[in-house]
Amino acid sequence: MEITDVVILILAGLAAGIINTLAGSGSLITLPLLMFMGLPPAVANGTNRIGVVVQNIVATGNFIRQKELSPKKEWSLVVPTLFGSLAGALIAVEINEDFLNYFIGGLLVAMFFIILLKPTSWIKGKAGEIKTTKSRIINSLIFFFIGIYGGFIQAGVGLFLLAGLVLSAGYNLVKANAVKVFMVLSFTIVALIVFLLAGQIVWSYGLLLAVGNAAGAWIASKYAGRIGAKNIRYILLAVVLFSGLKVLGVF
Questions:
Q1: pLDDT single digits (tens) 38-90
Q2: Whole-structure pTM value
Q3: What is the rounded end-to-end Cα distance, in angstroms, of the chain?
Q4: Residue 133: CB partners within 8 Å, gap ≥ 6?
């Protein structure tokens, strides 16, 4: 591995750690990067989880210290995502490589338009309208299916979790963001174990990403109120669109 590869992986992890902690979708940067560096789609998908786990350990710890998160109170929502993540990861390690490649490319292009529509702003606006939470069964089903998606591909799952926590569970956006970090940590550990057992992880790439992820998560969770997301969003949009078209073979 060249020194430039090391630097790129750490910087990409740093950006992803900040974006993931503030809202979500940082894996839309790191997942295609790993593919561009020569990893097969399934291996890139597994390797990407190392940084995600590390960054969310850091962010979860910070949110707990800041008293914005109490993990013991959130397990009723976390458990369904664990089972969903297990199912999604098992599908991911067995799926056809060509299909996964096109799926990732299509997902990146789709997420470009989703992010362009500023879903977090819409979710924030709806947060004030939520007066009651949905039943435990409905919430469990919602987060089970989000867990399947997270276990399968990870990229963009933070947006779905925020939507579920605000619009279904009735959390405000600040609380939802802290709980989202803890949920991603929990179900990504499950998915990581599945990918590890399937031999779809390259540790050298994953650990370098993790260094950047951890630094980004620490910065974002400690200074979340001071970091403006506007410019980050524009950068993310450009990277996601370019990556999606590249993976699909448009250029």
A1: 999 999 999 999 988 988 888 888 888 888 888 888 888 899 999 999 999 99
A2: 0.83
A3: 25
A4: 139, 168, 169, 170
3-state SS, one letter per residue, for 167-179: HHCCCCHHHHHHH
pLDDT of residue 230: 58
What confidence tens digit (pLDDT) does each residue in 210-220 have?
Answer: 999 888 878 77
